[in-house]
Amino acid sequence: MPTISHDSLREYGAAIFAAAGFPADQGQDVTDHLVDSNLVGHDSHGVIRLPGYITAVREGTMKPVGTLKIVRESPASVVIDAQRMQGIVLAKKAMEMAVERAKAHTFGAVAVHRSTHIGRLGAFPPIAAEQDCIGLLLLNGGGPFTAPFGGTGRRLPPNPLAFSAPRAGGSPLMLDMTTSMVAGGKVDVQRARGLPVPDDWLIDAEGNAVLDPNAFMGGNAAMLPVGGSVGHKGYGLGMMVDAIAGGLSWAGCSADPPTRGASGWLALAIKIESFIDPDEYKQEVQKLVEWVWSSPKLPGVKRIYYPGEIEEEKRQLRLEHGIPIEESTWTRIVESGDAVGVSAPTGLQ
């Protein structure tokens, strides 16, 4: 398995986007997002996605972010028809727009439908946290592959959500989770590595555990909601994300067929200063972190992490030692580069 520096991946990926005809600045933003996802350990949302994105760019199904089509607007909110614009670039812009409205009106919300894949949700709420706001992002998307609690049919997407809150003296708290057992991309990673999936991820039509990732990719297995066989809470959370993100974004809630293709999302920012002095709030969050850190530990547990801390630890490790890439993933990336005339950096193949 190749181990590649983040700098080389950023340069190589951005060059592929540019050669494929995508605006250079937006291609760099997308590449940085993918590489940063690898850095924090979310390989399912990292450069494994680059070949599919490049194919979409070349086929015209992923468009650069340009003039936004606003379909409804209020002082605190806006609904956007993305018209297949690039989701990662647009999600960053949407969170910035939500923050701008929150600073003026306490709450700011941007709802979007018909964008392309928005990548790792956890990258966006910290944009709000860095500007003394609470950041939230909800998505009813990722493909309808999750079974409802008590069912075996593929009815719901993974319906992820991400939250971020600033704290004193360090990186913000950040929770990024699916309401299914894992994101579909985690199954992609297992398949790329030639590994089975754990026995509590997937079930067949009779409710039996499925270990073969190819069965999932072929539509012959459904994923359990978070919590697995006792996943009623994960299922309920997924339903609520679907109702809020799907309904408010105009995408439509999950159905067959969904109203406007589903895969809608909502970026929300809340101005902390409307409730409490931001510095005092950050101190309170830090007290919370320290209180949780102080808990006695289970045998074998070296430390307790706050949400987002493991990602930061992984980032530092991979910045120093490089990012491991599956052979099959690297081959597909090189093929994407070759298709647009961009050779892999010397010594990396």
SSE blueprint and pairings:
Layout: E1 3-4, H1 6-19, H2 24-39, H3 50-59, E2 69-73, E3 77-81, H4 87-105, E4 107-113, H5 125-129, E5 133-140, E6 161-165, E7 173-177, H6 184-192, E8 202-203, E9 209-210, H7 213-217, E10 222-223, H8 232-248, E11 264-271, H9 278-293, H10 309-321, E12 323-324, H11 327-339
Parallel strand pairs: 3-4
Antiparallel strand pairs: 1-12, 2-3, 4-11, 5-6, 5-11, 6-7, 8-9, 8-10
Helix pairs in contact: 1-2, 3-11
Describe this structure as you would to a colleague.
This protein is of the alpha+beta class and 349 residues long. It has 3 domains: 8-62 and 327-349, Malate/L-lactate/L-sulpholactate dehydrogenase, four-helix barrel (Hypothetical Oxidoreductase Yiak, Chain: A, domain 1); 69-181 and 224-279, Malate/L-lactate/L-sulpholactate dehydrogenase, NADPH binding domain (Ribosomal Protein S8, Chain: A, domain 1); 192-221, no CATH class. The protein has 11 helices and 12 strands. It has a 7-stranded mixed sheet. The chain has a 3-stranded antiparallel sheet with strand order 9-8-10.
